[in-house]
Amino acid sequence: MTNNPLNGKVALVTGGTRGIGAGIALRLAQDGADVAITYQHSADRAAVVAKQVEALGRRALAVQADSADPAAVRAAVDRTAAELGRLDILVNNAGVFLVGPVTELGPDEVERTIAVNVRAPYVAAQAAVRHLGAGGRIINIGSNVGERTVFPGLSLYSMSKTALIGLTRGLARELGPHGVTVNLVNPGPTDTDANPADGPNAAAIAGFTALGRFAEPAEIAATVAHLSSADGGYVTGAVVNVDGGFTG
């Protein structure tokens, strides 16, 4: 492997302003890619990540887009290809985490969850295939609870992340003849500001992993980087659990 296996590539990471998304954006930039990210409200955070990408010697683009809006999702994909000259890697990372008893989550929560966690990855992939050539990559970011739900109140979120398994496998079959790979990465508990490793329930959550700890965003990003590179070129339709043994 070269030091910059993604030299000349352009990546779009949705929801790339913090946590796992920011970690992925920075790792892809470290590996040589120019990187676009989307954000909904956090323009300041997006600017910080963009500056970090540029500090690595790569071009950066921050695009405001609500993932619940299909037109905004399509526009973000097309703008990335237009302004950065191409699109090679799509990482569908943006998501919402709405939890609660099934008796309390109503139609609004259901619609929002499906719109962001399921429809947006489909729409983004649909838009991206017009730009991706042979060697293109689509990587969906799921969740460990898509395969093992250990706490109550996660039915809606788990359902939405499980849907990505079908999307990934279907797209892999459809796009394989064009040389485009599609994979799903399921992170386990990861130390972010939304889910800190020192949070009130962190010890219990970590206890469900074989390693007994949370991941760092960089550990999730490393797997995404591998799947984005030529070294990951024969992996497609796969569900890769980067979860410390949570689902083992």
UniProtKB/TrEMBL annotation:
One of its GO terms (molecular function) is oxidoreductase activity. Transmembrane segments: none annotated. Residues 9-208 form the Ketoreductase domain. It comes from the Bacteria. Keywords: Oxidoreductase. PROSITE patterns: ADH_SHORT (PS00061). InterPro entries: KR_dom, NAD(P)-bd_dom_sf, Sc_DH/Rdtase_CS, SDR_fam. Belongs to the short-chain dehydrogenases/reductases (SDR) family. This is 3-oxoacyl-[acyl-carrier protein] reductase. It comes from Micromonospora echinaurantiaca.
